[in-house]
Task: structure prediction
Amino acid sequence: MGNLRSLRDSIDYRDFKKKSIDSIDRKCANSQLRQKAIADRLLDKLGEPASWKFYAKCAYRLSEDEIWHFVELASRPHIIDKNRYFVRLASNAMK
Result:
């Protein structure tokens, strides 16, 4: 029992918690940067500045594959309003 107690005493849990919190913060920062980058790329592709918040929401809730699949569908030649078509596809996917 003495060895187990000395092992517990030698572990600094505060350092462990700090590293865990740092990694969570880093993941959140990375996901926010990813979300902004995808929203900016959607803005470039679809060209509707008023929809930037919706694009960011799509980047948060949908996979990148789904998003770019919807962009491809919206970019077909017979689609008149690409943004409206993308918004409808994305909205249905997020329900």
The mean pLDDT is 82.
